[in-house]
Amino acid sequence: MEQTLKEFKKILKTTLNQLLKIVKDPFYAGYDLTTGKNKLSHVDPYLSYDEFQKLQANNAVILSYQEIEQSLKNQDIYDVYCGICRKPMKFHFNVLDQKAWYSCSRKHPKALIASEDFFLIVNKSLEKIIEHLDTEQLLKDSRHFFHLIRKSIELELKALEIKKHHLMEKIILETDDFSNWRENTHYVDLNKLENEQKEFLNQIEEKKDLLLENESLVGLIKDYLHKCRQANPFFLTSVLIRSLFVYPNEVNIEVSKFDYLQDFQSQYIFNGDDLL
Is residue 112 included in any domain, yes or no? Predict the structure, then answer.
């Protein structure tokens, strides 16, 4: 079928996709089969109705071809750059061999990598990144920031307490009539200060809850990342990897900069199906 498509692509001077449309759509045979066999007199057919019917007898082959083609096209999900010229690499695929690859040969030695190998390298790199995430340091930093925030809030609370004390003194010393004490401006200000205190105390509790959530979430992070690596490697790559460069015998992966990678090697050797 691949050979036939290539032959008629040249003869009819059209594309493979257009040929497949001709094969599947009765319109190109001059018929509308939506509500029976209706001949379209205004259409100049590419092939006869009998020829179209014969092609439908081999529909399974056509569907199989299209499924393989779409599966290969779906492999072009990453932005892959040539390490030599730093320009985007071209994506190619061959339905007959069921193979796809990236290549670049812009006035320099050819850089080429099979998409199967490339995906495996990226996936294994993601695995290495996840394995070397220093979650203990993440927790340590979380606790440190919590203590800093609490210390700052405690200073604010002390300042508010001093202001409250001064206002209480004014209320006691300057008020002659306590019958309308709620309308006293000093009392109104005192009430505002107490609300501010409550707000700061609530902030401490919220931050404490967040810290506790951090401690429980960190335990789930690696498990989630490993699952995401299997289910949606493209998304995880967009988060953890900045760029991907392919050289004739090397893949250069620039990891997104963050502070929680520990003992992460700068170079790995791809051997079979693993990084060493």
Answer: no
Last residue of a domain, one of 48, 73, 98: 73
- The encoded tokens of residue 15 equal 């594309």
Q: What percent of the chain is helix, strand and coil (3-state, nearest 5)?
A: 60, 15, 25
Q: Which of 74, 13, 77, 12 is nearest to 46 (CA)?
A: 12
- Tokens (6 digits) for 13: 């001077």
Kindly tell me the burial class for residue 160, based on how many C-beta atoms sit within 10 Å of its own C-beta (0-12, 13-18, 19 or more): middle
Instruction: Kindly list the averaged pLDDT for each block of 10 residues, start to end, along the chain of length 276.
Output: 79 84 88 90 89 82 87 92 95 92 93 94 89 76 75 85 83 68 73 86 78 65 77 83 92 81 79 76
Q: Give how many domains the chain has, as a whole number.
A: 2
pTM (2 decimals)? 0.63
In a domain, 264, yes or no: no
Q: Which of 40, 73, 106 is the last residue of a domain?
A: 73
Structural domain span for residue 174: 135-241
For residue 38, list its beta bridge partners: 32
